[in-house]
Amino acid sequence: MRKNIAEFIERNKAEILAFWETLVNMESASADKEGVDRTARFLEEHLRKLGAETRVAEFEKGGDGLVAVFGKDRPGKPVAFMGHFDTVFPKGAATARPFRIEDGKAYGPGVLDMKGGVVVLSSVARFLEESDFSDRPVVVVLAGDEETAHRYSSMGKVFSDEVRGCAAAFNFETGDRNSGLVVGRKGTAVFTLSVEGVSVHAGREPRKGRSAILEIAHKVIAIQALNENDEGMTYNVGTIEGGVVPNAVPDRAEIVVDVRYLSSSQLDVVSARMREIADTTYLDGTRTTLSRTVGIPPMEKTPENERLFEFVRRKALELGQPEPWAEFSGGGSDSAFSVSAGVPTLDQMGVRGEWNHSDREYALVDSLFERIALVAECVMDLERFAPHFE
Ligand SMILES: [Zn+2]
Asked: What span, in angstroms and rounded, lies between the C-alpha atoms of 278 and 292?
Protein backbone atom coordinates (compact mmCIF):
# COMPACT_ATOMS: atom_id res chain seq x y z
CA MET A 1 0.00 0.00 0.00
CA ARG A 2 1.26 3.43 -0.90
CA LYS A 3 1.76 5.42 2.27
CA ASN A 4 1.19 9.08 2.69
CA ILE A 5 4.30 11.24 2.91
CA ALA A 6 2.51 14.09 4.69
CA GLU A 7 1.41 11.69 7.40
CA PHE A 8 4.98 10.28 7.66
CA ILE A 9 6.41 13.78 8.13
CA GLU A 10 3.79 14.75 10.69
CA ARG A 11 4.45 11.60 12.71
CA ASN A 12 8.27 11.88 12.62
CA LYS A 13 8.87 15.63 12.70
CA ALA A 14 10.55 15.73 16.11
CA GLU A 15 12.75 12.75 15.31
CA ILE A 16 13.84 14.20 11.96
CA LEU A 17 14.78 17.51 13.60
CA ALA A 18 16.69 15.67 16.34
CA PHE A 19 18.67 13.80 13.68
CA TRP A 20 19.51 17.10 11.97
CA GLU A 21 20.70 18.47 15.32
CA THR A 22 22.90 15.42 16.01
CA LEU A 23 24.45 15.62 12.56
CA VAL A 24 25.19 19.36 12.69
CA ASN A 25 26.74 18.95 16.14
CA MET A 26 29.23 16.37 14.85
CA GLU A 27 32.56 17.94 13.98
CA SER A 28 33.32 17.22 10.33
CA ALA A 29 35.64 19.84 8.89
CA SER A 30 37.06 18.63 5.56
CA ALA A 31 40.57 18.91 6.99
CA ASP A 32 39.68 16.95 10.15
CA LYS A 33 39.88 13.41 8.81
CA GLU A 34 39.13 11.90 12.20
CA GLY A 35 35.90 13.89 12.56
CA VAL A 36 34.82 13.23 8.97
CA ASP A 37 35.51 9.49 9.31
CA ARG A 38 33.54 9.34 12.54
CA THR A 39 30.61 11.04 10.78
CA ALA A 40 30.89 8.54 7.91
CA ARG A 41 30.58 5.65 10.38
CA PHE A 42 27.67 7.33 12.16
CA LEU A 43 25.79 7.76 8.87
CA GLU A 44 26.68 4.26 7.75
CA GLU A 45 25.13 2.87 10.93
CA HIS A 46 22.07 5.07 10.47
CA LEU A 47 21.44 4.01 6.86
CA ARG A 48 22.15 0.36 7.63
CA LYS A 49 19.53 0.39 10.36
CA LEU A 50 17.08 1.82 7.82
CA GLY A 51 17.69 -1.23 5.64
CA ALA A 52 20.61 -0.39 3.32
CA GLU A 53 23.64 -2.42 2.40
CA THR A 54 26.53 -0.09 3.09
CA ARG A 55 30.22 0.31 2.54
CA VAL A 56 32.66 3.02 3.54
CA ALA A 57 34.99 4.26 0.79
CA GLU A 58 38.20 4.58 2.76
CA PHE A 59 41.00 6.95 1.85
CA GLU A 60 44.40 7.37 3.35
CA LYS A 61 44.49 11.15 3.44
CA GLY A 62 41.08 12.45 2.32
CA GLY A 63 37.95 12.04 4.45
CA ASP A 64 36.14 8.74 3.96
CA GLY A 65 33.03 8.55 1.79
CA LEU A 66 29.95 6.38 2.05
CA VAL A 67 27.88 4.21 -0.29
CA ALA A 68 24.50 2.77 0.77
CA VAL A 69 22.14 0.77 -1.43
CA PHE A 70 18.49 0.13 -0.60
CA GLY A 71 16.70 -2.74 -2.35
CA LYS A 72 19.50 -3.77 -4.67
CA ASP A 73 17.39 -6.60 -6.17
CA ARG A 74 14.46 -4.41 -7.15
CA PRO A 75 13.74 -4.51 -10.88
CA GLY A 76 13.92 -0.91 -12.14
CA LYS A 77 16.93 1.26 -12.86
CA PRO A 78 18.14 2.73 -9.57
CA VAL A 79 17.69 6.32 -8.47
CA ALA A 80 20.75 8.02 -6.96
CA PHE A 81 20.88 10.37 -3.96
CA MET A 82 24.15 12.33 -3.79
CA GLY A 83 25.81 14.71 -1.39
CA HIS A 84 28.53 15.28 1.18
CA PHE A 85 28.81 15.49 4.97
CA ASP A 86 32.05 17.43 5.41
CA THR A 87 31.85 21.17 6.06
CA VAL A 88 34.13 24.16 5.41
CA PHE A 89 34.14 25.08 9.10
CA PRO A 90 37.23 24.29 11.19
CA LYS A 91 37.29 21.67 13.90
CA GLY A 92 35.62 23.05 17.01
CA ALA A 93 32.98 25.05 15.10
CA ALA A 94 30.17 22.65 16.01
CA THR A 95 31.06 22.91 19.69
CA ALA A 96 31.28 26.69 19.52
CA ARG A 97 28.07 27.19 17.51
CA PRO A 98 25.82 24.16 18.03
CA PHE A 99 22.55 23.59 16.19
CA ARG A 100 19.68 25.84 17.19
CA ILE A 101 16.35 26.93 15.75
CA GLU A 102 15.08 30.48 15.98
CA ASP A 103 12.07 31.96 14.16
CA GLY A 104 11.79 29.09 11.73
CA LYS A 105 15.49 29.19 10.82
CA ALA A 106 18.06 26.57 11.76
CA TYR A 107 21.66 27.58 12.49
CA GLY A 108 24.94 25.74 12.99
CA PRO A 109 27.98 24.83 10.88
CA GLY A 110 26.89 23.02 7.72
CA VAL A 111 23.20 23.18 8.65
CA LEU A 112 22.52 24.26 5.07
CA ASP A 113 25.66 23.05 3.25
CA MET A 114 24.73 20.31 3.39
CA LYS A 115 23.78 18.39 6.50
CA GLY A 116 20.19 19.45 5.92
CA GLY A 117 20.37 17.70 2.54
CA VAL A 118 21.66 14.53 4.20
CA VAL A 119 18.64 14.64 6.52
CA VAL A 120 16.31 15.07 3.52
CA LEU A 121 17.75 12.12 1.60
CA SER A 122 17.90 9.80 4.60
CA SER A 123 14.31 10.69 5.58
CA VAL A 124 13.12 9.93 2.04
CA ALA A 125 15.00 6.62 2.10
CA ARG A 126 13.39 5.76 5.43
CA PHE A 127 9.92 6.64 4.16
CA LEU A 128 10.40 4.49 1.05
CA GLU A 129 11.57 1.54 3.15
CA GLU A 130 8.62 1.87 5.52
CA SER A 131 6.27 2.05 2.53
CA ASP A 132 7.67 -1.17 1.03
CA PHE A 133 8.69 0.75 -2.07
CA SER A 134 9.67 -1.87 -4.63
CA ASP A 135 10.04 -0.10 -8.01
CA ARG A 136 13.79 0.38 -8.05
CA PRO A 137 16.93 0.44 -5.88
CA VAL A 138 17.97 3.66 -4.16
CA VAL A 139 21.71 4.31 -4.25
CA VAL A 140 23.11 6.84 -1.76
CA VAL A 141 26.62 8.20 -2.36
CA LEU A 142 28.06 10.72 0.09
CA ALA A 143 31.50 12.33 0.07
CA GLY A 144 33.54 13.27 3.11
CA ASP A 145 35.82 15.67 1.24
CA GLU A 146 33.64 17.61 -1.20
CA GLU A 147 34.63 21.02 0.10
CA THR A 148 38.26 20.30 -0.78
CA ALA A 149 37.30 19.00 -4.25
CA HIS A 150 38.43 15.43 -3.41
CA ARG A 151 42.05 16.56 -3.57
CA TYR A 152 43.28 13.60 -1.53
CA SER A 153 40.79 10.92 -2.58
CA SER A 154 39.31 9.21 -5.62
CA MET A 155 35.76 9.99 -4.49
CA GLY A 156 34.93 11.43 -7.94
CA LYS A 157 35.45 7.97 -9.38
CA VAL A 158 33.30 6.42 -6.63
CA PHE A 159 30.45 8.74 -7.67
CA SER A 160 30.85 7.85 -11.38
CA ASP A 161 31.07 4.11 -10.73
CA GLU A 162 28.18 3.91 -8.29
CA VAL A 163 25.66 6.04 -10.17
CA ARG A 164 26.34 4.83 -13.72
CA GLY A 165 23.17 3.28 -15.13
CA CYS A 166 20.82 5.11 -12.74
CA ALA A 167 17.53 6.46 -14.09
CA ALA A 168 18.06 9.80 -12.36
CA ALA A 169 20.20 11.44 -9.70
CA PHE A 170 19.31 14.04 -7.12
CA ASN A 171 22.11 16.00 -5.50
CA PHE A 172 21.06 17.40 -2.13
CA GLU A 173 23.54 20.28 -2.15
CA THR A 174 22.68 23.59 -0.53
CA GLY A 175 19.28 24.76 -1.70
CA ASP A 176 18.59 28.23 -2.94
CA ARG A 177 16.78 30.65 -0.54
CA ASN A 178 13.99 30.70 -3.07
CA SER A 179 13.26 27.72 -5.27
CA GLY A 180 16.00 27.62 -7.91
CA LEU A 181 17.20 24.14 -8.88
CA VAL A 182 20.45 23.58 -10.72
CA VAL A 183 20.64 21.90 -14.14
CA GLY A 184 24.27 22.84 -14.90
CA ARG A 185 27.40 24.09 -13.19
CA LYS A 186 30.73 25.49 -14.26
CA GLY A 187 33.90 23.51 -13.75
CA THR A 188 36.87 24.80 -11.79
CA ALA A 189 40.57 24.71 -12.60
CA VAL A 190 43.34 26.26 -10.55
CA PHE A 191 46.55 27.57 -12.13
CA THR A 192 49.72 28.59 -10.33
CA LEU A 193 52.23 30.89 -12.03
CA SER A 194 55.63 31.27 -10.40
CA VAL A 195 58.10 33.87 -11.65
CA GLU A 196 61.80 33.78 -11.02
CA GLY A 197 63.76 37.03 -11.40
CA VAL A 198 67.17 38.30 -10.36
CA SER A 199 67.68 39.76 -6.91
CA VAL A 200 70.07 42.65 -6.28
CA HIS A 201 70.37 45.39 -3.66
CA ALA A 202 67.68 47.99 -4.30
CA GLY A 203 70.07 50.91 -3.75
CA ARG A 204 73.37 49.87 -5.29
CA GLU A 205 72.71 48.38 -8.73
CA PRO A 206 68.94 48.20 -9.17
CA ARG A 207 69.18 48.09 -12.99
CA LYS A 208 70.96 44.75 -12.83
CA GLY A 209 68.00 43.23 -11.04
CA ARG A 210 65.00 41.59 -12.68
CA SER A 211 61.85 42.12 -10.62
CA ALA A 212 59.67 39.05 -10.41
CA ILE A 213 56.92 41.27 -8.98
CA LEU A 214 56.96 43.58 -12.01
CA GLU A 215 56.81 40.60 -14.36
CA ILE A 216 53.92 39.05 -12.47
CA ALA A 217 52.08 42.38 -12.33
CA HIS A 218 51.96 42.38 -16.15
CA LYS A 219 50.69 38.83 -16.09
CA VAL A 220 47.96 39.63 -13.55
CA ILE A 221 46.64 42.36 -15.84
CA ALA A 222 46.80 40.08 -18.88
CA ILE A 223 44.91 37.31 -17.05
CA GLN A 224 42.21 39.57 -15.66
CA ALA A 225 41.75 41.02 -19.16
CA LEU A 226 40.70 37.56 -20.38
CA ASN A 227 37.41 38.18 -18.56
CA GLU A 228 36.48 40.54 -21.38
CA ASN A 229 35.96 37.56 -23.72
CA ASP A 230 32.41 36.74 -22.79
CA GLU A 231 32.30 33.01 -23.41
CA GLY A 232 31.18 31.99 -19.95
CA MET A 233 34.73 31.46 -18.68
CA THR A 234 35.91 33.53 -15.73
CA TYR A 235 39.42 34.17 -14.45
CA ASN A 236 40.26 35.34 -10.94
CA VAL A 237 43.77 35.98 -9.69
CA GLY A 238 42.88 35.09 -6.12
CA THR A 239 46.24 35.25 -4.34
CA ILE A 240 49.56 36.95 -4.94
CA GLU A 241 52.80 36.82 -3.04
CA GLY A 242 56.44 37.62 -3.64
CA GLY A 243 59.56 39.43 -2.50
CA VAL A 244 61.27 39.20 0.85
CA VAL A 245 62.33 42.69 1.95
CA PRO A 246 61.68 46.20 0.61
CA ASN A 247 65.36 46.92 -0.07
CA ALA A 248 65.98 44.13 -2.58
CA VAL A 249 64.73 43.62 -6.13
CA PRO A 250 62.44 40.60 -5.70
CA ASP A 251 63.51 37.39 -7.42
CA ARG A 252 60.34 35.47 -6.68
CA ALA A 253 56.60 36.04 -7.09
CA GLU A 254 53.63 33.74 -7.40
CA ILE A 255 49.94 33.98 -8.20
CA VAL A 256 47.14 31.44 -7.96
CA VAL A 257 44.29 31.79 -10.43
CA ASP A 258 40.80 30.29 -10.15
CA VAL A 259 39.22 29.64 -13.55
CA ARG A 260 35.60 28.61 -14.17
CA TYR A 261 34.52 27.07 -17.46
CA LEU A 262 31.42 25.57 -19.05
CA SER A 263 32.42 22.35 -20.78
CA SER A 264 35.32 19.92 -20.92
CA SER A 265 36.37 21.29 -24.32
CA GLN A 266 36.68 24.77 -22.83
CA LEU A 267 39.30 23.50 -20.41
CA ASP A 268 41.70 23.12 -23.34
CA VAL A 269 41.01 26.69 -24.44
CA VAL A 270 41.54 27.99 -20.90
CA SER A 271 44.76 26.04 -20.53
CA ALA A 272 46.12 27.32 -23.85
CA ARG A 273 45.40 30.93 -22.85
CA MET A 274 47.11 30.52 -19.50
CA ARG A 275 50.08 28.87 -21.23
CA GLU A 276 50.38 31.79 -23.66
CA ILE A 277 50.47 34.34 -20.84
CA ALA A 278 52.96 32.26 -18.85
CA ASP A 279 55.22 32.01 -21.91
CA THR A 280 55.08 35.72 -22.73
CA THR A 281 58.02 37.49 -21.10
CA TYR A 282 57.37 41.15 -20.33
CA LEU A 283 60.68 41.68 -18.57
CA ASP A 284 63.75 40.01 -20.12
CA GLY A 285 65.68 37.84 -17.74
CA THR A 286 62.67 36.51 -15.83
CA ARG A 287 61.39 32.97 -16.12
CA THR A 288 57.86 31.69 -15.49
CA THR A 289 56.60 28.24 -14.68
CA LEU A 290 52.94 27.24 -14.90
CA SER A 291 51.13 24.41 -13.17
CA ARG A 292 47.49 23.34 -13.21
CA THR A 293 45.32 21.47 -10.75
CA VAL A 294 41.98 20.49 -12.16
CA GLY A 295 39.25 20.96 -9.57
CA ILE A 296 35.71 19.67 -9.97
CA PRO A 297 34.76 19.31 -13.66
CA PRO A 298 31.68 21.07 -15.04
CA MET A 299 28.18 19.66 -14.65
CA GLU A 300 27.18 19.93 -18.27
CA LYS A 301 23.67 21.20 -18.86
CA THR A 302 22.12 18.32 -20.81
CA PRO A 303 18.58 18.08 -22.26
CA GLU A 304 18.05 15.13 -19.89
CA ASN A 305 18.83 17.31 -16.86
CA GLU A 306 16.27 19.78 -18.14
CA ARG A 307 13.71 17.03 -18.64
CA LEU A 308 14.27 15.88 -15.04
CA PHE A 309 13.87 19.48 -13.89
CA GLU A 310 10.55 19.72 -15.75
CA PHE A 311 9.35 16.51 -14.06
CA VAL A 312 10.27 17.88 -10.62
CA ARG A 313 8.79 21.31 -11.36
CA ARG A 314 5.41 19.78 -12.18
CA LYS A 315 5.56 17.62 -9.10
CA ALA A 316 6.26 20.68 -6.91
CA LEU A 317 3.21 22.43 -8.38
CA GLU A 318 1.03 19.35 -7.81
CA LEU A 319 2.10 19.44 -4.15
CA GLY A 320 1.25 23.12 -3.89
CA GLN A 321 4.89 24.09 -3.34
CA PRO A 322 6.55 27.25 -4.70
CA GLU A 323 7.34 26.84 -8.39
CA PRO A 324 11.04 25.98 -8.92
CA TRP A 325 13.05 27.45 -11.78
CA ALA A 326 16.13 26.08 -13.53
CA GLU A 327 19.50 27.69 -12.80
CA PHE A 328 23.02 27.47 -14.10
CA SER A 329 25.53 27.88 -11.28
CA GLY A 330 29.11 29.14 -11.21
CA GLY A 331 30.05 26.84 -8.31
CA GLY A 332 31.07 23.22 -8.84
CA SER A 333 29.57 20.07 -7.31
CA ASP A 334 29.70 16.29 -7.57
CA SER A 335 26.84 16.36 -10.07
CA ALA A 336 29.64 16.73 -12.62
CA PHE A 337 30.39 13.04 -12.09
CA SER A 338 26.83 11.77 -12.45
CA VAL A 339 26.18 13.83 -15.59
CA SER A 340 29.40 12.66 -17.20
CA ALA A 341 28.37 9.09 -16.31
CA GLY A 342 25.25 9.72 -18.42
CA VAL A 343 22.73 10.12 -15.59
CA PRO A 344 20.07 12.87 -15.74
CA THR A 345 20.83 14.96 -12.66
CA LEU A 346 19.17 17.72 -10.72
CA ASP A 347 21.18 19.63 -8.14
CA GLN A 348 20.55 22.02 -5.25
CA MET A 349 17.79 19.73 -3.95
CA GLY A 350 18.77 20.27 -0.30
CA VAL A 351 17.14 22.49 2.29
CA ARG A 352 16.72 26.11 1.32
CA GLY A 353 18.59 28.93 2.98
CA GLU A 354 21.38 31.47 2.64
CA TRP A 355 25.00 32.35 3.38
CA ASN A 356 26.64 28.94 3.24
CA HIS A 357 30.38 28.92 4.00
CA SER A 358 29.87 31.76 6.52
CA ASP A 359 28.83 32.05 10.17
CA ARG A 360 25.57 33.64 9.03
CA GLU A 361 24.53 30.39 7.32
CA TYR A 362 20.94 29.39 8.06
CA ALA A 363 18.37 26.95 6.67
CA LEU A 364 14.60 27.37 6.53
CA VAL A 365 13.19 24.63 8.74
CA ASP A 366 9.96 24.20 6.75
CA SER A 367 11.94 23.67 3.56
CA LEU A 368 13.38 20.49 5.08
CA PHE A 369 9.92 18.92 5.15
CA GLU A 370 8.99 20.47 1.81
CA ARG A 371 11.97 18.80 0.13
CA ILE A 372 11.35 15.44 1.82
CA ALA A 373 7.80 15.46 0.42
CA LEU A 374 8.92 16.59 -3.04
CA VAL A 375 11.65 14.00 -3.46
CA ALA A 376 9.57 11.16 -2.01
CA GLU A 377 6.77 11.91 -4.48
CA CYS A 378 9.22 12.20 -7.39
CA VAL A 379 10.84 8.86 -6.60
CA MET A 380 7.51 7.06 -6.14
CA ASP A 381 6.41 8.40 -9.52
CA LEU A 382 9.77 8.13 -11.31
CA GLU A 383 8.28 5.54 -13.64
CA ARG A 384 6.69 8.50 -15.44
CA PHE A 385 10.13 10.06 -15.98
CA ALA A 386 12.01 6.85 -16.76
CA PRO A 387 9.73 3.95 -17.78
CA HIS A 388 11.06 0.43 -17.16
CA PHE A 389 10.90 -0.61 -20.78
CA GLU A 390 12.07 2.36 -22.76
ZN1 LIG B 1 28.12 21.66 -0.31
From this structure: 12
